[in-house]
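User: My collaborator sent over this chain with a note saying "see what the structure looks like." That's all I know about it. Can you take a look?
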Amino acid sequence: MSDAVPGFVPRMLVDPDIGLFRADERVFTAMLEGWRAQMLARGLTTETIKKRCQLLERFQGFTGEFPWRWGPADIEDFLGDLRSGEKPISLKTLRSYSNAVAMFCSYLTHPGYGWGEFCERTFGDIPSQICFEWNMPRHTTDDAVPAKKRSFTKAELQRLFDYIDDLVDREYAAGSKRWLPLFRDSVAFKVCYAYGLRRREMTMLDLEDFGPNPHVSDYGRFGAVQVRFAKGTAGSGPRRRTVLTVPEFDWVVDQLKTWTSGGMRQQFPTAERSSALWPSERGARRCRLRSGASREPRG
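Assistant: Without extra context I'll predict from the sequence alone. Here is the result:
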């Protein structure tokens, strides 16, 4: 019954007729594979799983030891080294790393997976939890944004928008083809700000995601936007939410009308093959600043 659990000790390791050449390395690899299976069963994304496994491989390389010999001092030395280098990791990254190691140790020490018994029989030692409240960064608030970061002032925001618009005008006047992608990015920035979107939420928008608000008919089909790729919790996948167009940012309606109905979007050769709001020259969707627009505005 136990061997049906995702992540249980593989039969190839517990079969007494099969010897273990370079046992420590093979067992560690099998542990990571088991943990990977457990995370897949929980519904985590493949990218999250890949990053966590890479971190554990990095941690093992740092210690030079394997999980059944790890101790609290190992994770403290590892994280302390990352925090004291020339480019110390952020508190958010520190928390992410320590949580990943803690979850891996919890997986190994859970009796349902059998790793404790296997390691004791094979190596004479067992894995243990090495991350505790007293050697992990505290998470006392949901807002982990550094204090130095703040919202744009109205003047700063206007300066940013004016700078991008000036780039569009300059490229258009020069007869350059770059004016159209720059115009797309200009509208995208304004949509992002007006609706309070994250980068991926904005990038994944389709034409059909906009709809009317029956209480504000003046906005037409741009009275609200359904965000289909909002940030979700681990294992839940993207969430959905609807954001209404508000009077303070009703100028975004004209921007969207110009982009979707004014013939701008249709000038991209990929626009006919996709309903993506931000098509690119070669792909279905794309929205990022060009090198010219990523520089600090002058003046």
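A starting point for your reply to your collaborator: The chain is about 45% helix and 5% strand.
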